[in-house]
User: Which sequence fits this backbone?
């Protein structure tokens, strides 16, 4: 149960959502946008956030699109992870989404909610980073398109008045050879130690990671090392480990030392599989 009251709004258009945000902000309501709402509910129950108003984006048609448009895959921010997996228009994204939480939770968790969340895994962003996807963002200044690399650095960096409307991915990435590994300490239960998503495009391997550091990431420096095929794989992996963007985390799932061990093994599996393909 959420231990405080708040106002609820469900606009039917992008323009109306932004207008409501402006008005509620002027009234001192500390408004928040939400798509799936699972994480916001969790934080609110623990008194970690206190919005005076929430703006539900699920009635906005553009946020529910999931189709190919002019050789681009367009996915609305309010599309659930379950719907993504079922449609399977971008197999790597579908497989990654299917590994998030359990089926009941995936029915509620949305693509936008997962990407914009505060929990450090946010795995759904990994295929989008690999595919150099674009994002459509709405705010007081209007609707704009940007590279995901411009707005996602450790987390989705939007202005308070902005929200994610859609992701746009070039169709050529949808059929690229890929691998996805999610390593847990025990079976298929609990948070992961390491998640790696990787694909091969134009004979080059691209990799992205979650669970390793305190944020999901793609490292172009690591990719440069991995694509030096004249160097033995074991040497490449050691070099890649030195280029991680932040310290490897220690948490209830495993120590940094154990996580590094798992990461190295998983890197080897990913590179070997894609180099053979």
Assistant:
């Amino acid at each position: 149960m959420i231990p405080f009251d708040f106002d609820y709004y469900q606009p039917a258009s992008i323009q109306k959502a932004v207008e409501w945000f402006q008005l509620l902000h002027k009234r001192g309501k500390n408004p928040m946008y939400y798509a799936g709402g699972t994480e916001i509910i969790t934080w609110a129950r623990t008194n970690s956030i206190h919005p005076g108003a929430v703006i539900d984006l699920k009635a906005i048609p553009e946020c529910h699109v999931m189709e190919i448009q002019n050789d681009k895959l367009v996915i609305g921010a309010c599309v659930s992870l379950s719907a993504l997996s079922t449609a399977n228009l971008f197999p790597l994204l579908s497989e990654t989404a299917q590994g998030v939480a359990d089926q009941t939770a995936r029915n509620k968790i949305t693509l936008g909610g997962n990407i914009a969340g505060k929990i450090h895994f946010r795995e759904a962003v990994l295929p989008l980073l690999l595919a150099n996807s674009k994002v459509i963002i709405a705010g007081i200044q209007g609707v704009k398109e940007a590279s995901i690399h411009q707005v996602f650095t450790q987390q989705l960096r939007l202005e308070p008045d902005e929200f994610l409307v859609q992701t746009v991915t070039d169709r050529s990435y949808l059929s690229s050879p890929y691998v996805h590994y999610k390593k847990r300490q025990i079976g298929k239960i609990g948070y992961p130690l390491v998640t790696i998503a990787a694909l091969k495009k134009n004979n080059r391997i691209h990799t992205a990671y979650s669970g390793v550091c305190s944020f999901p990431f793609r490292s172009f420096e690591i990719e440069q090392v991995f694509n030096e095929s004249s160097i033995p794989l074991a040497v490449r992996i050691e070099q890649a480990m030195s280029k991680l963007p932040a310290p490897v985390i220690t948490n209830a799932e495993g120590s940094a030392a154990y996580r590094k061990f798992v990461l190295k093994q998983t890197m080897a599996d990913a590179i070997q599989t894609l180099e053979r393909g």
Notes: The chain has eleven helices and 14 strands. The chain has three domains: 7-56, 61-173, 178-276. The two ends are 50 Å apart (CA to CA). Residues 61-173 form a domain with the Uridine Diphospho-n-acetylenolpyruvylglucosamine Reductase; domain 3 fold (CATH 3.30.465.10).
